[in-house]
Amino acid sequence: MYPIDLLSPSHLFTNVISVLNSVQLLSRKEAPGAQPTAADFEVNLQTNTGFLPEKPIPRLPEAYSAWEDALTRAQEVLILGENITEDNIKSRVDGELWRSQMRELPVISTNDLKTDKQLLRRAHKVLAFLVHFYVHSIPDQTAGSVLIPRSLATPLLEVSSVLRMAPVLTFADTVLWNWDLVNPELPVTIENMRFGVELFSGTEDERNFWFGNAKVEMLGVEMLHLINEYHSLPNVSDFASVCKINRLLTRLVAIINRVEETLLSMRDLVDPSTFYWQVRPWFNGSASGSSSPTWIFEDGPDASTLDLSGPSAGQSSVMHALDIFLDVDFKLQQRRHPAPSESNKRSDLGFMERMRRYMPGAHQDYLSHLANSSRPLRELAKSTPAVKESYNAAVSAIRKFRDSHIRIACLYVVSMARSTAIPVGCPVFAMMQRMERQQKRTGHSTGTGGNELSLLLKSNRDATARAALKI
After folding, report:
1. What is the rounded distance in angstroms from the CA atom of residue 184 to the CA atom of residue 206?
2. Which residue of 10, 324, 327, 359 is most buried, as measured by CB atoms within 10 A?
3. Where are the alpha helices (DSSP H) in 40-185?
4. Would you tell me how many other CB atoms lie within 10 Å of the CB of residue 25?
5. Bridge-based pairing state of the strands 294-297 and 179-181
6. Residues 270, 83, 104, 297: what is their CA dihedral angle, to the nearest 10 degrees?
């Protein structure tokens, strides 16, 4: 039993009075009939990995060795094209040789992958990494377009279609599916998992960045258990159920606080300069900024019809599940207090909904299932005074987390984008010039999902705060 599960006598008395006062307001909200389980949506509660698979496979079958070998070689020889100076002949030659080999590869059939989700996930990850390596290793690149060869484009589009997710590098590729076990004989725990199996920069900063995100996902498994417990209650109107809900929400606050601590701890593990100049540029998708090229999939559909922004923490299914559970209104569709500010209204209100399209289809289905719950938590809290305080505490905790997220974003992105302290002789001087041009044109920093970062994060923080109920 959790220590916080032990309610004080005064708390019990308050609950009794509140529930008695609420009896007239509540109909008996019983659990619905047979419902799909989390496992039906590829959410692994039994193994305590949540949206992470039980264990990713390390390599595709031999028929796809050309992809796997190309990814290994890319991590050995490729560097960011914008960091390649004119006199760095070796990097230019190595990069062009690798890209020419990609163009010469045959289109390998994906038919043998389509009946195995583990193979599909690995294929999506490998192909998405290859596409980003291909695009971002090109030197002297200016705004325009870049052709993704059919050898990569065709299988990536096919695999993405089966998985029902975007044909681009995603949060799932870089975090959920980008790990293995340190000791295969031991259970799957965060201590026994090695993240960042595939890296762009090869730096420990990049590995630690993925590890920090993965720790949040693993903590999020506890949130998923709580959400499942709530929806599994026989009813939510009697005294015992209300006490149980309050205990669940109290435990949820503790988990959110640990998630915030994990986020803030990344300051000690990931250098802002290394992240911004050596790691983050690899994430950019098609037309991710005013100076980023548009991708053209050879023999594929128009890029404007595809989701191609690249990976973002906004694609974390566990954080979306939490927001749905608390009924955070990011699209400003509901009348809540205080009214949204003008800057809130100018932000990308559809961002969070759009980010769901980058998740595996089964995870999208899970979120839809939660959103269509017959017993939404916020509505219950509105009609049950005994639950309001605990509900508001959970909202306050996630608002506080988003305050910290804003500070981290300012440290790692906004302040770095405004920095002008990089000398001409530095390998990333070309990147600095590019960012200066973008700043002159747009006047703001964009997130990895192509959004106006500060405006978006503050709008999301404010939307979270507006979920709180008047006591």
Report:
1. 24
2. 359
3. 65-77, 89-104, 117-136, 150-163, 171
4. 11
5. unpaired
6. 70
Number of Cβ within 10 Å of residue 218's Cβ equals 19
What are the structure tokens assigned to 204, written together? 């420990």
CA angle 100, 101, 103 (to 5 degrees): 65
Amino acid of residue 207: R
User: CA triplet 433, 78, 273: central angle to 5 degrees?
Assistant: 45
- CA–CA dist 214, 265 (Å, integer): 13
373: buried, middle or exposed (CB in 10 Å: 19+, 13-18, 0-12)? Answer: middle
Asked whether 70 and 196 are in contact (CB, 8 A), the reply is no
- What sign for the dihedral angle of Cα 334, 335, 337, 338? positive
pLDDT category at 36 given cuts 50, 70, 90 is confident
Which long-range contacts link 418-426 to residues 24+ away (Cβ below 8 Å)?
418/445, 419/273, 422/277
> In the numeric block, which tokens belong to residue 429?
């001087």
The per-residue pLDDT for 429 is 41
Lowest-pLDDT choice from 6-20, 352-366, 411-425, 456-470: 6-20
Residue where the block lists tokens 């019990």: 12
Peptide bond before residue 338 is cis, with ω within 30 degrees of 0: yes
Q: Which comes out higher in pLDDT, residue 31 or 146?
A: 146
Residue carrying the six token digits 């090869």: 202
Residue 138: both structure tokens together:
């090109």
Residue 222's contacts (CB-CB under 8 Å, 6 or more residues apart) are 251, 255
Residue 145 has which token pair?
């377009």
The amino acid at 155: P
Backbone angles phi, psi at 94, to 5 degrees: -60, -45
**Chain-centre distance for alpha carbon 222:** 17
Annotate 144-172 with b (16+ C-beta within 10 A) or e (fewer): eebebbbbbbbbbbbbbebbebbbbbbbb
What whole-number distance in Å separates Cα of residue 265 and Cα of residue 243? 34
CA neighbor of 140 nearest in space, from 187, 96, 194: 96
Nearest to 245 by CA among 465, 19, 9, 466: 19
Average pLDDT of the chain?
87
Sequence-separated (6 or more) residues with CB below 8 Å from residue 194 = 179, 180, 181, 182
Determine the straight-line distance between the first and last CA of the chain, rounded to whole angstroms: 29
* DSSP tag of 137: T
* C-alpha to C-alpha distance for 394 and 14, rounded to whole angstroms: 19
